[in-house]
């Protein structure tokens, strides 16, 4: 008799657990598979080096679908040495915000060119031409934020992880990469 009572109690507990799991709010049920909260120091994140350009500058992808699991944002940092430039381009599928952390830069935004300094915020609506040139004597430290993923995959395809061998792409490889990612970036 005692064994039957224990079995009944176990069955009742299992029924309650199953019913609770099926009626739990979706936000609770998806927490274990959703984005991962991150706290990253200045130099932490996915450190990558551009394959092309003078000096092969470093950039860091900090938050995106692969780093933290965000399906809505991309955030990263990049430093431009004196004389370095981000060539004119636009992003068809996302807005961008640039936060100038240090240095002096000339920013072309649409039809406007302006010299900017540390503390400047540049809002770049989708499809707006943007170019940034370091015109000062110190590094320009930038933080970039995109409203939608996409461009970070172009960045990955155009770079290597820090410490990996850099093999500059051929002109044909660069053109193929730009074509592959035309949904995320268009260069002048």
SSE order and pairing:
Layout: H1 2-23, H2 26-30, E1 46-50, E2 58-63, E3 74-80, E4 85-90, E5 96-102, E6 104-109, E7 112-117, E8 121-124, E9 130-134, E10 140-146, H3 151-157, E11 159-161, H4 171-180, E12 186-187
Antiparallel strand pairs: 1-2, 1-11, 2-3, 3-10, 4-9, 4-12, 5-8, 5-10, 6-7, 6-9
Explain this structure to me?
This protein has a single domain, classed as Jelly Rolls, CATH 2.60.120.10. It contains four helices and twelve strands. Strand 1 and strand 2 form a beta hairpin. The protein is an alpha+beta fold. The chain is globular, with a radius of gyration of 24 Å. The protein has a seven-stranded antiparallel β-sheet, with helices on one face. The chain has a five-stranded antiparallel β-sheet with strand order 7-6-9-4-12, with no helix packed on it.
Q: What's the number of helices?
A: 4
Shape from CA axes?
globular
CATH class: Mainly Beta
State the helical fraction.
10-25%
CATH topology: Jelly Rolls
Largest sheet: 7 strands, antiparallel
Q: Main attributes?
A:
single chain, 188 residues, alpha+beta, Jelly Rolls, 7-stranded antiparallel sheet, 5-stranded antiparallel sheet, 12 strands, globular, disordered N terminus
In summary, what is this structure?
This protein has 188 residues and is α+β, with helices and mostly antiparallel strands. It has 4 helices and 12 strands; from the N terminus they run ααββββββββββαβαβ.
């Amino acid at each position: 008799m005692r064994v039957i009572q224990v079995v009944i109690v176990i069955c009742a507990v299992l029924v309650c657990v199953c019913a609770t799991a099926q009626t739990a709010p979706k936000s609770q049920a998806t927490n274990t598979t959703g984005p991962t909260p991150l706290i990253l120091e200045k130099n932490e994140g996915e450190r990558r080096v551009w394959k092309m350009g003078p000096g092969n500058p470093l950039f860091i992808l900090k938050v995106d679908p692969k780093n933290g699991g965000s399906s809505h944002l991309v955030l990263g940092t990049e430093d431009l040495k004196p004389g370095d430039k981000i060539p004119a381009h636009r992003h068809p599928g996302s807005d961008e915000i640039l936060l100038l952390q240090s240095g002096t830069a000339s920013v072309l935004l649409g039809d406007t060119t302006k010299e900017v300094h540390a503390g400047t915020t540049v809002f770049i609506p989708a499809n707006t031409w943007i170019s940034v040139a370091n015109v000062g004597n110190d590094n320009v430290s930038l933080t970039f934020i995109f409203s939608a993923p996409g461009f970070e995959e172009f960045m990955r395809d155009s770079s290597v992880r820090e410490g990996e061998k850099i093999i500059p792409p051929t002109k044909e490889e660069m053109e193929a990469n730009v074509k592959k990612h035309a949904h995320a970036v268009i260069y002048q």
